[in-house]
Amino acid sequence: MNYARRSTRSSGKRRGSQQQHATTNDVSPEEEARRTRVRAQVSLQQVTKEVDDGIAQAYVALAEESHSEPDFTSLKAEGEKEARRVGRTGVTLEERALDRYLDDDEWERQERAEGRGVRIQRFPIGGSREKV
To answer: What pTM was estimated for this model as a whole?
Structure first.
């Protein structure tokens, strides 16, 4: 009789533990786009060692926007980058975001090297007033 109880318990456990898992076909296009954005943000942060989530999110958003509407002023530079990627069919969102980040980083370095770094001017406090 103890044997019968054990078998019913184990079969009851099996029924309860059987769950259906979602497949990739069940994911909506919006959810897939969100996952792609998050994946691109994490990848950008890992490659560049950027700790600010907002910066990664901004570069991914810019990369998404640039994919839908090409920027005609930077087509030459983009063409040169594409020429370097021999044998690849397309550029991913992650690659576009990383390219923009690295381009901006290079521009900032050049500006600092030429003496045009960021300078915050002091707000004039009391210096322009005349003493009575």
So the answer is: 0.57
